[in-house]
Amino acid sequence: DPELSGEFSRFMTWADDLRTLGVRANADTPEDARQALEFGAEGIGLARTEHMFFGDDRIAKMQRMILADSEEERRDALEALLPFQREDFAGLFQAMKGRPVTIRLLDPPLHEFLPHDAEEQEVLAERLEMPVRRVREKIEQHAEMNPMLGHRGCRLGVTHAEITEMQARAILEAAIDVSTDDAPVRPEIMVPLVSTKAEFDHQRSVIDEVAAAVFEERGKEVQYRVGTMIEIPRAALRAGEIAEAADFFSFGTNDLTQMTFGFSRDDAGRFLPYYVQENLLPADPFQTLDQEGVGEMVSIGTNRGRKVKPKLQVGICGEHGGDPASVKFCHDTDLDYVSCSPFRVPIARLAAAQAVTEDDR
Ligand code: PEP
Ligand code: MG
């Protein structure tokens, strides 16, 4: 009903006038980005890059990169992926027309890109012109007993800096291509799964070096920022020193919940409903932020970070960013924005406005 939607959008404008908390969306395709804008998102708070490698034309290159025998071979495979990534990021920047876009470097363990089915492994071996036995051996080397605590996030970028280099280059080249005087693109590059300042420093220097090279080659610069996910309890505790080097923080409350409780993200569908039913937990902590424990990690991280950098931009991009009670918590903790799935953006806008009306109670 167009009339209803007119009234609804007027009502939402009032909510927007009231709220002080920003609302961004988690989006990694131009379609999702446009959807997010229609729902009123002010930017992209999290563009996950892992899904970008699964397309038919990319996955083979990704697998070649992962199973390469030398850094040189890995670099060749990454070079073949660079144009795809440049196009991915340009699409997001174009859709967002100069609004903030936070792009997260590759996060999942690499085995997620490899085939585990025997037949698919044979196809891969043929494509790589490698004996099947050798391919299976290599895939085995990438197996992880505990993948969420394993070789993922910035740990990949530390051991394989060339992955970070390729992604940083794609982001910065796309930003230069899409930038106009009216709508300059100022990408926010986000490092996942940091637990020490040394890891962040490592990734930041890789990115800064790439930026200097790209700006020199192109004879043009863009403003970019490098920040970090705070999603490991240690990072929240050491937020003071990490803030010395990071331009922004974004709390990954999915992993932070997992690692603070020691619950696997897969437990959400297993015994956690029983915990809720028996009142051992007030709610599923992967849906509604556990304010007493995980929330304390968020407050500690924010306060320690801002003590060092008073204007540090702080957001959250876990599932909680679209949950009303958690949005209120983020408002009360003085975060700059929440970022959630596009379809939850209207709820987050309303919850952020409601939080203001409850401020002085
Ligand atoms: C998180 O951990 O909260 C997060 C946003 O990242 P992902 O869900 O991709 O691990
Ligand atoms: Mg995470």
Automatic annotation (TrEMBL):
The chain holds residues 533 to 893 of 893 of the full protein. Catalyzes the reversible phosphorylation of pyruvate and phosphate. This is Pyruvate, phosphate dikinase. Substrate binds at R48, R104, E231, G252, T253, N254, D255. Mg(2+) binds at E231, D255. Signal peptide: none annotated. The active site is at C317. It comes from the Bacteria. Belongs to the PEP-utilizing enzyme family. Residues 5-355 form the PEP-utilising enzyme C-terminal domain.
